[in-house]
Each structure stands twice: as structure tokens, then as C-alpha cells.
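[User]
Protein folding is very new to me. Any chance you could explain this protein sequence and its C-alpha cells? I have pasted everything here:
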Amino acid sequence: MPYKEHTLANGVRVYWDPMPESRAASIGVWVRTGSRFEAAEEGGVTHFLEHMCFKGTTTRSAEDIANEMDFLGGEMNAFTSQEVTSFYATVLTENSRQAGNLLGDILTNSVFDPVELERERGVVLEELAESKDDPEDRVMENLFRIYFGDHPFGAPILGTEESITRFSRLSVREYFKKHYHPGNLFVTIAGNVHWDEVIDTLENAFQNISVRNLSSSPLTTPVPTFSRMEEEDDYEQVHLCLGLRGLPQPHPRQTALRVLTTHLGGGMSSRLFQEVREKRGLAYSVFSSPLSFSDGGIVRISASTRPSRREELASVLVEELRRLEKIPLTSSELTRSKNQLKSSLLLGLESAGGRMSKMGRDLLNWGREIAVTEIEQWIDQVTAEDILHLAQELKWGEEQAISVLGPLSAK
């Protein structure tokens, strides 16, 4: 069934994907703000603000918010990325109005209580410390730093201990006022809901959000750099990440890139898995994944191995990248990668949450609904020649940013 659309009185757009047979409803609020919109001294404030929205409103305490969602038997959460912040809830269809009201309350009436702010500062500092203890997080953070350089994409989404310590109630409120307004957010809903009733609920829930016309600073397009960064630490393995040139999300060859990265490292039959694990026993897991932004992108390859085999692993990875520029995919390889992409797409749409998320991504990336049949057509149209030419153009075999973390001095 096609999406339905509605504009609330204050300008907030609402989109609905009907699921007549579903017993679940998922509601998401998408805010076009992320770490790339922060000034240098604000590093991590978008993520910190996401946390603070759950810490009390003019009508609910932080405990009330948690108790109410648990009472509904649903799940409510949020995430922050480089370009978007999303708040979402998944509940039984009969509880969709209460969930919409709760989301509206935390996004329009949060008080940013000073006591709660200090508590949450400690929570976020612990989250940062936990990330520093995770080698996969650390090696990836280092990769982004060298690949994107001084661009905001190179800064950690969580911020730093110094920046988190500086946040005040005033700075958080000012960031909220600047980015959380009707022109900068929209709502997506998937499930078997009563549309008119939900719209009526959202009209009331979002009525306190201020309508503002704020000028935005021009964004700097990222320019990738290719260098090597090594960090010593006492782990059992050496963790290796390669950063390769990617494509912006709206690029016409984005689908070809997805097919290419799936073939390279998207499953047990992929080139990297077969060569690195099955033939050479160099790593337990190895994978590649693209990450695309509105005006840039990166393809990441990750693997871990024993210290004595780190250079062999790096050489094998680069050699496989060079093969992509010389040897076209066979018909069987191309079909297999396409089937993997289609399966991932379709299986992800079995849930209300998956349908709600797809709607949000479509609107953020393309400004419109993209039908599943249209995406399947894009996948079907990719040829082996498209893949070969794209690999040659991206120059993965010649240009890699390399992040290495582990016992580098070990014999």
C-alpha cells in the first residue's frame, strides 16, 4: 500500500506505511542533525542531547518515562549518527497513540534538569570509556580520523572527555533550539494504526515545538586522505581497518557500490572471507561495509589477526582489492551478490520497525518513498562491467587509509 502523508499545523510532516495484518506499530522521529553540525568545541553535544531528552519533561520525570514505556510493553530508544538523530518506539497497535504522545513530550517539553544533566554526564563518560576499551571501536575511530582529517566526520560522535565535561544546561538548550524545529524533523509510522487518531495525537504532542527560521552555516564537503595510523596496545590480536573511497548516498552508482561491497566482503562466499579465512586462516572474521553521507562516503574493511601475521593480512587485503580492478565478476558471483542484497532488503521489511526505518532513510536520502520494486530494479540493472569500471574509478587497490591497533612491537 502507498504511504500516506500529512502536515501538522506547525509544519511537521508525518508519513505512514500501512501494515493491515500487523499487530505492531513503530513510530520514529527523524531530526536532521548529527555530529557534523557541531562546532569543534561542541563535540558530542548532539549525542548528549539525545540522552537528555529521556531525562524528564514538564509533565514526566525520567522514571515516569521509563515506567510508561515498560507499562505499554514496548521499546523506546534513540541513536545519533553523523547526519541524523532518531527517536523511535515500537508498541502494540492499540498503544500507538500513547507512544506518539510520549515521543512528542520528550522532544518538545524536555526540561534539561541540572541534576539530571550531571548524572547523565557521568553516564556518557562511562559510555565513552567503554568505547575506548573496545578495540573495534577504537580502530574504527582512528580510521575515521585519518580518512576524514579535520572534517567533522573525522571527529567521534560521542565527543571527548574534555568536550563532554564542558556541556552546560544552557549550551544543550541552545543546541536544541537551533536544530529541533518543524523544518528540521519529520515523523514516520509503520503499522496497522488508526490514521486520523494518530494524527490527532501528534497534533497535540508536537504543538509546543517552536517554529523557527534559522539560517544554517554552509557545510564543507569531505575530502578523503590516505595514510596509515598505528596505535600500540596490549591486546591478543592486531586489529586492522582499511578505509576506501566511497560514494555519497544519492550517487547514481550507489547500488553498484552495494553490489560490489557485498561481493567483496558481505558473506561467507565473499572474496575476502574465502581468501582470508578459508584459504589462509588469517582471521576468524573479515567483512566490508559502505557508509554513505549526503556528500561523501567511505568503504570499510575490518579484520583481526595474530601480531606475527599482520603484514600478511594487509597484503592479502590489498591484493584482493587490486583483483577487483582487473577481473570482472562472473555471472554466478554477480547473481549471488544481488540475491544477498535483495534478501537483506526484503527480510528487513518483515517488521514494523524495519518498515518505519526504511521510510525514514528514503526521505532523508532521496526526499521521497522508494518502492521495493524500484530498488530491486536498480539491483537487477547492475552489470559486471559496471562493477569493474567502478572498482577502477575508486582506485581501491592504490589508495587505502589504514588503521592498525594492537601489540605492534610483539615479535
About this structure: The mean pLDDT is 95. The longest helix spans residues 114-133.
